[in-house]
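Two proteins were folded this term; both appear here.
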Amino acid sequence: MRGDDGDRTQPSARRGCASQYRGAWQRHYPLSPRHRRPRRPGDAGAGADGGAVMAALVDAIWGALLLGGKLFLIIVPVVVAFEVLRYQPIFRRAGNSVEPLMRGVGLSRDAAVPLFTGIFLGIAYGAGIIIRVSQEKRLSKRELFLIGLFLATCHAVVEDILIFVAIGGYGSIMLGLRLLLAIIITALLARFWRPAS
C-alpha cells in the first residue's frame, strides 16, 4: 500500500463488494436455463448416476435371462411329457372320471386338460399346454373365459400351498377354500352365461 492511498478502497475490498452485489442481482434476476452453463460429463455426481443406471440395467437384463431360462427348462419338459402321455389309457380314464365335475362348472370334457394343468402347474408353467389344447380342441370363448376365471381363483396349488405351509399356514384349509371358491364362482357364472345354441 502506498502512503498516499488514504481511504481509497483496496482491490480485495472492491472485489468483495462486487461479488456481494452480483449475488444480490442474481437472486432478483436469476438466469434462464438456456443461459446457464450446461452440465458436463465430468461434473461431480454425473459418473455416479451413470454407473447406477448401468448397474440397474444389467441387473434387469440378467434377471430376465434367468427367468426365461427357468421357464424354458420347465415348460419344454412338461409339454413333451404331455405329448407322450396324452394318448395313454390313463388319460382317457381320468377324463371319464372328471367329466361330471366339468359339467358342474359349465365346462366340457375337452377343457379338463388345460384346467387341471393350470391348477397343478400354474398359469405360467402350464401355459404351453393350455394354449396348445385350447387351439386343438377349438374351445369356445365362453369356455376359455370360464377356465381363466377358475384359474384366477385357484392355480398352482402345489407350489403356493408349500410356500404358505413353510411359513406356518394350514395347507388343507387353504386348498379347500381356494377350490370351493373357484368352483362356486365359475359355476354361478356358467349358470347365467349359457352356451349359444
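Next, the second protein.
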Amino acid sequence: MMTHTFRTLSTLVVLSLCTFGTQAQSGDPLTLLKEVEKKTLAYTDQTIQFTMVIEAPGRDGKKVQRKTSGKVEVVGEKALLSLNGQLIFLEGARVTTVSEEDEEIVVRKLDGDETQFTPAALVKKYETGSNFQWAGEETVANGVKIVYIRMKPKNNVDVRDVVLGINMRTKRIHSYQEFGTNDVTTTLRIVQYDVNQGVTLQKVTFNKSKYPGYDYVAPTGM
C-alpha cells in the first residue's frame, strides 16, 4: 500500500510539472493537455491542497475506503508533501520522510520496480506510453466546466486507465482518478491550487540540520 500511495502522490507531482510530449493535433485531447502544460510550466512554484480516497475490495466483497488529505509544494522537479503528520521530500530517486511526532527521519533510495514511480520516470511514461481519449465533461460549482481525458497506459500491469479532469476556466488540473488492474480505485481531487507564492527551492529540499536530535535511518552514503 505504501508503494501504491507513493506512486499516486508522485503522479500528482508529475501533473504539477505537466509535461506531455506527444505530438498534439487540433481537436485531440493532447491539444488541451499541451495548453495546460504551457501555462503550468510558467509557474515558479505551486502549492496544491488535495484529498485522496483509496477504494479497495474488502474481504466480505464490499468496498473499503481510506480517505486522507494533504498538501504538496513543487519547485522545479523537487517537491515537499505534507501527509498524515509527516513531511515527505521527493528528490529524484531519494525519498526522505520526517516524522516530527516520532522525531525520526527515514531515507529511502528507490530501486528496482520502484524507480518507475519517480516523477521523472512517470513523465517519460505518460509522454510515450499512453493513449488519450475524451471522457466527458460536467459543470461544477460557480459554473466551472470540467473536461475529462482518459489516459490508457500501455504495457502497465498495475494501472488499467486514468481519468484526468481539467478546469477549463483556469486550465489547471482539477482531479485525477486511477483504476488499477487489482480493482483498487484512487481518486485525487484538488481543493486549492496556489501558484507563484514565493515557495523556495530551499524549502522543498531536505536539510538534516533542521532536525537536531532526530533518529536518522538511511542507506550507507545517504
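Residues 2-17 form the longest helix (16 residues). The CA atoms of residues 116 and 122 lie 7 Å apart. These notes refer to the second protein only.
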